[in-house]
Amino acid sequence: MASNRGVAYIGTGKVEVRSIDYPKLALGDRKCEHGVILKVVATNICGSDQHMVRGRTTAPSGMILGHEITGEIIEKGRDVEFLDVGDLVSAPFNIACGRCRNCKEGKTGICLNVNPARPGAAYGYVDMGGWIGGQADYVMCPYADFNLLKFPDKAQAMEKIQDLTLLSDIFPTGYHGAVTAGVTTGSTVYVAGAGPVGLACAEACRLLGAAVVIVGDMNPDRLKQARSFGCETIDLREDAALGDRIEQILGVPEVDSGVDCVGFEARAHGHEGQEAAATVLNSLMTVTRAGGALGIPGLYVTDDPGSKDEKAKSGVLGIRIGLGWAKSHTFATGQCPVMRYHRQLMMAILHGRTQPAKAVNATVIPLQDAPRGYTDFDKGAARKFVLDPHGLLAA
Ligand SMILES: NC(=O)c1ccc[n+]([C@@H]2O[C@H](COP(=O)([O-])OP(=O)(O)OC[C@H]3O[C@@H](n4cnc5c(N)ncnc54)[C@H](O)[C@@H]3O)[C@@H](O)[C@H]2O)c1
Ligand SMILES: [Zn+2]
Ligand SMILES: [Zn+2]
Questions:
Q1: Residues 274 and 196 in one domain
Q2: Which residue range is the domain that position 225 belongs to?
Q3: pTM of the entire structure?
Q4: Among 89, 146, 182, 252, which is most exposed with the fewest C-beta within 10 angstroms?
Q5: What is the tens place of the pLDDT at every residue in 96-153?
Q6: Quick one: angle between helices 196-208 and 220-227, nearest 10?
Q7: Shortest-distance ligand to the CA of residue 215
Q8: Could you tell me the distance, in angstroms and rounded to a whole number, from the CA of residue 290 to the centre of ligand 2?
């Protein structure tokens, strides 16, 4: 049996690459006949992982991280009918059974059968069902026929693997944020956050035909990255009101659509912006036109032991809902149902319509260097780190 390594969450600010068990095709003590074992070809570090590594969740020490997984099938269970050993596949970060009411409605981010604690599951994530993460050499994926997206041609896929690896999460997530915010041909959009999700969202807005995409952040390197593919940017360290800054760009202080690509660790605008979890939601309501929609892929939690704010410890934030109500805003929250979009986005990548890896500055590093990747990402590097466990991307 092959050996295996995985990236373990140790405690606040600390991850470690350690030896872990080779995955079994098993669910508890029964065989997982609908699952496959993947040899991981690419697996990315995500801002969602950072929430855990910053000690802002109840993630247990020792948990193996990694929900953004692309890999080759090296073993399959008896009931996997439509995939084969040797197929190169993208695994949506959401694990979904394909059989429950929500899966049947396409709401795979809130599958009812894969997490005893609550609807919705993911690999390597706190409260998400205890599934072992894929920042590893090998990982098990259940309900393979339903979940996995096969790339039509392996050699062609390997040429664009840095784009395709983003299909497991952030490209569909950014696209979902844009779609649920109503972005379409000719839209004006404000994207809060220039991390990988915000940049992927900005690229998705471009693909959807938005007239102007404005990205706001406090991180000048990340804003520069946004400008590199045609976005307008707003440096939120400056004191001017967000609406005034938008007016300087558009001639009006409003946008058609607003997308939150920040989540609950949001900071207040202005120079020494301290953490203020409701900032993004309140500013999106302020600058989005009446009748517009807010896409909210940014993550909000039910338990935040690391918050300095007593109410925020249980996810209670000071949201000005009266403003959103008065403007008849629509809100879309929750995990992105990746499968709703991944095939279409794969086609757009394979046919050269979009280059998300360039937008997010995908940067390949060996699995062994994951701790450095986490540290640099936490410092705000304008990069999306892609781990390469078997050295297949470096080649
Ligand atoms: N819904 C989903 O399915 C899903 C999937 C993936 C990631 N996420 C979430 O998306 C969010 C972004 O992920 P990421 O990887 O880009 O994270 P990230 O931490 O790299 O990026 C967040 C960015 O927001 C900036 N920021 C902080 N306060 C801000 C403010 N008030 N206005 C604008 N920008 C501000 C930060 O400087 C940072 O650059 C995270 O909360 C992550 O958990 C959700
Ligand atoms: Zn992710
Ligand atoms: Zn289900």
A1: yes
A2: 170-333
A3: 0.98
A4: 252
A5: 999 999 999 999 999 999 999 999 999 999 999 999 999 999 999 999 999 999 999 9
A6: 20
A7: 1
A8: 31
